[in-house]
Amino acid sequence: MLKKGIFTFSVMVYALAVILNGCKKSDPIAENSTDQMLYDLAKTSNGFKWYKNSDKQLAKSSGSAHSYSFLRTRYNAIAAENLDSQGKIIEGKTFKEGSLIVKELSNNASALERYAILYKNSSSPDGDAKGWVWGYINANQTVADAASNKGRSCTGCHSQAGNVDYMLMNKFFP
Ligand code: HEC
Question: Whose C-alpha lies nearest to ligand 1, atom 2?
């Protein structure tokens, strides 16, 4: 009787674990995945330039679907070739291969919670039609939207009028 009780209890715990796991919003980064590569790239910050030359946290814009209160965006050396002297994106100029743009998202300006990443890498199996790879990865190394989704939930909004090779910072933070 006791044994049966323990068995039933174990089955219930297992079922609960499966349900909770299914509801989880984000999964751990898979080893050797594009997400892992993007995460590693996003974590380095040497040689990056900030949008409008400022690392100040910006309050999120009205157009943003990114559900965090604060953001700031930085560009690696290759992507920074597309910034003008004020640190704004040069209109009408496509980003080169190897360009990496990292938007840091947080609710509390002192704690980074999520990286939104754009990486120009046409040879990646996860690149979209323009060669961009889309990353949406939490600072705690879980994936919010896998790169293998090829930015399906991102490109619609990032194609809106006023974008420059998908970039929206100019439009919302002129
Ligand atoms: C409904 C609109 C919308 C959707 C959907 C959206 N974004 Fe954005 N994104 C914005 C806006 C607006 C900005 C400008 C900064 C801000 O206000 O957040 C932005 C900025 C960015 C930037 C900084 C570069 C730039 O200038 O645009 C990156 C990187 C980015 N988003 C990645 C993503 C990823 C990855 C996804 C999908 C998982 C995504 N975005 C989905 C609206 C959107």
Answer: 157
Cβ count within 10 A of residue 120:
22
The verdict on the CB of residue 133 being under 6 Å from ligand 1 is no
Q: How far is CA 50 from CA 65, 135, 142, 173, in A?
A: 21, 19, 25, 13
Are 83 and 90 a contacting pair, CB within 8 Å? yes
Both tokens of residue 74? 């930085």
Closest atom of ligand 1 to 134 CA is 35
Q: If one looks up domain 27-172 in CATH, what number appears?
A: 3.50.70
pLDDT, tens digit, for every residue of 85-110? 999 999 999 999 999 999 999 998 78
- pTM for the full predicted model: 0.88
